[in-house]
């Protein structure tokens, strides 16, 4: 028998706040976390704004333990803070009761940032001669500088699995520890696979979610070259406009969302409050093109169908869809098409929104933060809006909860995440009664 | 619910001692070593000047002609995965889109794309230094210092528009699934050296519970570029003492081990539901029966001296396989060749296996192929599966002078004939603490 998996704790670090209640309140109010980038001087970049996490201090979450994580990357720090909230929320402070070999971590953790300025210094040393003239890369000159200016900690922290390593140490857990990096689908996939680990007996409790910041010079460079980012530098708080006809790309966000997933009987024995149940998960590949989503939404549809099927539910059971909704021309059109394909007649009746309109695209961490909003939507009977929605797009003709949150009873939600390159993941989460 | 049985029906590897399972296995049997002076770039400015580089290959030999232009967006890591995938698929006699488009089979396919998954481990793919450093160097100010404003305004345009896509770790899986049309669950596990074992273990679970019938899984990485060699150097893990004696540089569990040796490579294997394999009369190498994963709770940057996470993973895998240490008759430890990691690993194996460890043969490919990050575990797994299938344990390079604390019984010169019914292999992330073990059972041994 497949075991049941419930959510017993949540925590996040987002551009709209570093605790569940205050950030959720701002989401329901339709606030934007987007502003000019200050993490580095982005003023000359094609996109000079982003949704940054601001005024973040790890010590507020870990107290004296924060010092143990000296040198940790922004990814690791966000994950530690979000996990500390979720761990406390789930009442897991008492380690003595846990079989720690059956408590694990499954994250969609992004790569840490390249140690950019030292790296650039080495690049210049390798590619310019004594006269300052550009030369082909001289690996001897490069390595002499690189070995001097780069350092061990900043190199280690680039490994995507390091955040999971920090969590295992901080929360003293010895169960399965996995990191996935299926681009923008990563944390949805992590939560789905963590659920499966519990369902089929590999673990009883999982710390799962995602963490990522690509708001650094090379991250912005990569997405700018792909022309994936909005370039509305003159009105940045309205730049993230998923499903709007005038959308021109996504806005980079950063942060972490973490959930405590727990086997139902384990949660019951502890007498902990249950927030919701994870009932469905689907993972697929477009297997189409590296640069484009399958034009019929084949992979996205299959992910939603597999998730519903594994939940034993039909589209009629879903009251809210947390869309991938990036604000790129292609994603929003094809995601809408795929929802129509799966939901048929019911597609126009279901409330759909993209919180990326407010917090930007947290890349690997996006799905986890979005799933938490589903849990909160169920709890409060309120769904967050898609802000900056002004101009309807005939290709996106569904109910995107424009501009204002909506009070509706929410029995179950579906949350979509689609990665660059065609990896698609969908989760279904259901009210606990 | 009854778990479905999962068997191994195809092995594809790309290693410094051979590309393709037959060449690799032959290299192991002949005790070849693939470590030599770096040829891909001038390493003379680096403390380590040796590595395990792959034999030359032409990517076009492994993909449909129409896909050749995509090579422009493939980092070396991705190419290694694509090469390994072709070898795995052809070894398993799967007829995929790639095989048909290459004209190697008239079709139709013998695997349903919607039941064909992928789980391909990847590392932190290093940017092509020539390309990135060259672009960065254009953004210098009058004093010759890097200028972020110039970079943002103009310098970045020296990178091709699709630059980022070359280095996203999920692109290994994305290219492989496109080329072979695998649309079922697709994951990219990025846990450094533990990636392949975790990916194979997860694929095993995916098939066992019925979410796919066939999975291509494993991992690939290239550590033989200046940036990838610099990172472990800064961490003090690399052997910098044996640049003049490359063939003996990688010495896992040796008394005089001096560090790991960077290399490139990987492996992808085909896992298949037993019923599916039988229905197409596939050759069965062995059965995967155990998976265990664990985490080090002591440090994310150094080994726990007791090797606790390794011991937990070994025990979990044995329990999952419903077997015990005394029924295992081949062990394949990871063996980095670094002092403290190998000590910790030995401690874990000694604890779980006791004196039985010195009674049974052991094998490690580390001396022959070095460390290639996320691809390492898949190479070990493929070698383990071959030993089970062929009843042969190959010799392990550079293991003749063992650390007295290590009880492994590595085969020395000639391959050893041994009836291998149950084998276990482990890998772990040097930084991060992720650890995983897998048990392979000889097919048809379910009653022993």
Task: Describe the protein.
The complex is a heterodimer of chains A (433) and B (448). Chain A has 433 residues and is of the alpha/beta class. Helix content of chain A is 33%, strand content 18%. Chain A has 14 helices and 14 strands. In chain A, strand 9 (320-322), helix 12 and strand 10 (351-353) form a beta-alpha-beta unit. In chain A, helix 8 crosses helix 14 and helix 11 crosses helix 12 (329-343). Chain B is 29% helix and 18% strand. The two termini of chain B are 23 Å apart. The model of chain B has no long low-confidence stretch (mean pLDDT 97).
Spell out the helices and strands of chain A N to C. EHEEHHEHHHHEHEHEHEHEHEHHEEEE
Q: Please compute the radius of gyration of chain B using only Cα atoms.
A: 21 Å
Termini separation of chain A (Å)? 21 Å
Low-confidence stretches of chain A: none
Given helix and strand content, the structural type of chain B is alpha/beta
Secondary structure tally, helices of chain A: 14
- What portion of the residues of chain A fall into strands of 2 or more residues? 15-25%
As a percent range, the share of helical residues of chain A equals 25-40%
Rough shape of chain A?
globular
Mean pLDDT of chain A: 97
Helix content of chain B: 25-40%
Taken from the alpha-carbon principal axes, the silhouette of chain B is: globular
**Which spans of chain B have pLDDT < 50 for at least 5 consecutive residues?**
none
Secondary-structure element order of chain B, as H and E? EEHEEHHEHHHEHEHEHEHEHEHHEEEEE
Give the total of beta strands of chain A: 14
Name the biggest interface. Answer: A-B, 97 and 103 residues
The computed structural class of chain A is alpha/beta
């Amino acid at each position: 028998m497949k075991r049941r998996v419930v959510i017993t704790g949540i925590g996040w670090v987002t551009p709209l706040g570093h605790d569940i209640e205050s950030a959720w309140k701002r989401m329901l109010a339709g606030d934007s976390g987007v502003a000019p980038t200050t993490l580095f001087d982005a003023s000359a970049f094609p996109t000079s704004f982003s949704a940054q996490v601001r005024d973040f201090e790890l010590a507020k979450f870990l107290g004296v333990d924060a010092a143990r994580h000296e040198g940790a990357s922004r990814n690791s720090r966000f994950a530690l803070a979000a996990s500390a909230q979720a761990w406390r929320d789930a009442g897991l402070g008492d380690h003595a009761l846990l079989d720690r070999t059956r408590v694990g971590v499954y994250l969609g953790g992004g790569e840490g940032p390249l140690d950019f300025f030292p790296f650039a210094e080495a690049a210049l040393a390798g590619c310019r001669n004594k006269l300052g003239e550009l030369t082909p890369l001289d690996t001897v000159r490069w390595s002499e500088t690189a070995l001097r200016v780069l350092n061990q900690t900043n190199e280690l922290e680039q490994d995507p699995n390091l955040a999971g390593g920090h969590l295992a140490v901080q929360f003293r857990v010895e169960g399965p520890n996995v990191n996935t990096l299926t681009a923008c689908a990563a944390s949805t996939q992590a939560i789905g696979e963590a659920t499966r680990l519990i369902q089929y007996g590999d673990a009883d409790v999982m710390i799962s979610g995602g963490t990522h910041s690509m708001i650094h010079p090379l991250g912005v460079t990569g997405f700018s070259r792909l022309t994936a980012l909005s370039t509305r530098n003159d009105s940045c708080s309205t730049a993230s406009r998923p499903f709007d006809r005038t959308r021109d790309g996504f806005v980079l966000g950063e942060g972490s969302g973490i959930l405590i997933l727990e086997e139902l009987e384990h949660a019951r024995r502890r007498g902990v409050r249950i927030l919701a149940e994870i009932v469905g998960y689907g993972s697929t590949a477009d297997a189409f093109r590296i640069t484009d989503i399958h034009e019929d939404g084949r992979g996205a549809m299959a992910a939603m169908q597999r998730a519903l099927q594994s939940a034993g539910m039909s589209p009629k059971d879903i009251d809210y869809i947390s869309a991938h909704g990036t604000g790129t021309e292609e994603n929003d059109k094809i995601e809408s098409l795929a929802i129509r394909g799966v939901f048929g007649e019911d597609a126009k009746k279901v409330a759909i929104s993209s919180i990326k309109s407010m917090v930007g695209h947290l890349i690997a961490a996006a799905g986890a933060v979005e799933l938490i909003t589903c849990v909160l939507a169920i709890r409060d009977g309120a769904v967050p809006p898609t802000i900056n929605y002004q101009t309807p797009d005939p290709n996106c003709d569904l109910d995107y909860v424009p501009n204002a949150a909506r009070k509706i009873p929410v029995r179950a939600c579906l949350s979509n995440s689609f990665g660059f390159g065609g990896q698609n993941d969908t989760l279904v989460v259901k009210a606990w009664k | 619910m009854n778990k479905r049985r999962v068997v191994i029906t195809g092995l594809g590897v790309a290693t410094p001692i051979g590309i393709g399972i037959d060449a690799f296995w032959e290299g192991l049997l002949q005790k070849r070593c693939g470590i030599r002076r770096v040829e891909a770039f001038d390493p003379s400015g680096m403390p380590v000047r040796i590595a395990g580089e792959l034999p030359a290959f032409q990517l076009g030999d492994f993909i449909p002609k129409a896909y050749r232009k995509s090579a422009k967006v493939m980092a070396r890591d991705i190419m290694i995965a694509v090469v390994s995938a072709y070898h795995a698929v052809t070894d398993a006699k799967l007829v995929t889109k790639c095989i048909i488009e290459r004209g190697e089979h008239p079709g139709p396919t013998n695997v349903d794309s919607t039941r064909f998954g992928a789980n391909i481990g990847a590392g932190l793919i290093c940017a092509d230094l020539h390309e990135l450093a060259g672009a960065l160097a254009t953004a210098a100010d009058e004093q010759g210092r890097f200028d972020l404003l110039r970079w943002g305004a103009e310098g970045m345009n020296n990178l091709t528009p699709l630059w980022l896509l070359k280095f996203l770790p999920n692109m290994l899986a994305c290219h492989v699934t496109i080329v072979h049309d695998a649309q079922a669950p697709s994951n990219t596990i990025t846990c450094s050296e533990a990636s392949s074992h975790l990916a194979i273990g997860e694929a095993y679970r995916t098939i066992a519970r019925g979410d796919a019938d066939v999975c291509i899984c494993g991992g690939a990485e290239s550590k033989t570029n200046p940036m990838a060699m610099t990172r472990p150097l800064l961490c003090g893990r690399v052997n910098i003492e044996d640049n003049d004696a490359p063939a003996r540089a990688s010495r896992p569990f040796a008394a005089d081990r001096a560090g790991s040796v960077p290399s490139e490579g990987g492996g992808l294997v085909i896992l298949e539901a037993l019923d599916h394999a039988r229905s197409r009369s596939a050759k069965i190498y062995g059965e995967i029966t155990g998976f265990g994963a664990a985490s080090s709770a002591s440090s994310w940057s150094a080994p726990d001296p007791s090797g606790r996470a390794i011991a937990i993973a070994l025990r979990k895998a044995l329990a999952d396989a419903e077997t015990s240490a005394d029924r295992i008759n081949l062990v394949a430890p990871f063996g980095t060749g670094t002092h403290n990691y190998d000590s910790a690993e030995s401690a874990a194996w000694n604890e779980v296996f006791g004196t039985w460890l010195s009674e049974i043969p052991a094998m490690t490919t580390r001396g022959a192929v070095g460390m290639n990050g996320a691809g390492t575990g898949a190479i070990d797994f493929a070698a383990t599966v071959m030993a089970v299938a062929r009843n042969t344990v190959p010799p392990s390079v550079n293991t003749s002078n063992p650390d007295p604390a290590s009880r492994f019984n590595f085969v020395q010169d000639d391959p050893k004939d041994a009836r291998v019914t149950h084998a276990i292999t482990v890998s772990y992330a040097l930084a991060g603490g992720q650890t995983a073990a897998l048990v392979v059972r000889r097919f048809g041994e379910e009653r022993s």
